[in-house]
Write a structure and sequence with these properties.
Elements (H helix, E strand, L loop, with lengths): L5 E6 L3 H10 L5 E7 L3 H11 L3 E3 L2 H6 L5 E4 L6 H10 L3 E4 L7 H14 L3 E3 L2 H4 L1 H11 L6 E9 L19 H17 L4 E8 L5 E9 L5 E7 L8 E5 L2 E5 L8 E6 L5 E4 L11 H12 L10 H18 L32
Parallel strand pairs: 1-2, 1-4, 2-3, 4-5, 5-6, 7-10
Antiparallel strand pairs: 7-11, 8-9, 9-10, 11-12, 12-13, 13-14
Length: about 350
Amino acid sequence: MTADSVRWGILATGGIAAAFTADLVDLPDAEVVAVASRTEASAKAFAERFGVDRAYGDWAALARDEDVDVVYVATPHAAHRAAAGLCLAAGRNVLLEKPFTLNAREAGELVALAREHGRFLMEAMWMYCSPVMRRLKALVEDGAIGEVRSVQADFGLAGPFPPSHRLRDPLQGGGALLDLGVYPVSFAQLLLGEPAGIAASAVLSEEGVDLQTGAVLSYESGALASVHCSIVGGTPTAASVTGSHGRIDVPHGFFMPERFVLHRAGREPEEFVHDPADAPHHSLKHEAREVMRALRAGETESPLVPLDGTLAVMRTLDAIRERVGVRYPGEAPDRDPGGDVDGNPDEDPTAQLTPA
């Protein structure tokens, strides 16, 4: 790092990588110095678009670039383990797109690798870095609604997505749960922690990925969380948390909220709204700022997106998939999990889900 800026490398050139880079170049204390793709042509086109000096046609070259302070990894899910692992082993710090990996085993391997090398690692769970969501969490922790009794959250897209689409491709970790369900599960995790019990049901595609999934998470406190995700129906994509003395409702777009409403008995509803002076509410700048703050402070993980929390979310996603019968090809004994994937290797399946 220099005195004035943190130097970023971008690994992958798909839609979410472009959205993140566009926000990065608008930050005065961030500098994008390199980009890598599996093809030099794609890397060069991306570099020209954003004024990046160095474009690499392979991931290893970026991982070896000692002028890069931190790498943002935005490959498809199935390549997260390989891409992030390559960077961590080479001594780079990493911000890794969600879902963190295909499964908890891969996630644990990356966390162990980061800790072994003393490198910073964080899941790009932008919801946790949102000023509005941080305010909501603080209110709940301060007892504004009493003891949490229940959480509800959903995320659904109308589609339809054809069988050839990346959201339905098992090789790329397709399905509703990893692309969309990670948000409702992470919302519940933020407020209640890791569940003690899980019940789930899903509708699967012919390819073997989940088209829609619903789960009930139970906790030792007696609280319940109901989470739902879908790629065959547009849902309210809203969330709420109910306590013994009140309720908080987060309207459409809860994963990057602009506002929420606090309801308490005997009081008028209170609305909390994002301050537009602090970047747009849907901006990826919030997570970028947290990464740079942590790096400057010498931290190897973020208190906003702690690695133990990420591992807990991955365990919950694994348990839901086990109950509904979704298994990815990379998890089979005869294949190397996190290895190369087919299709468009630099296009993140969540790219079109990012409001911009």
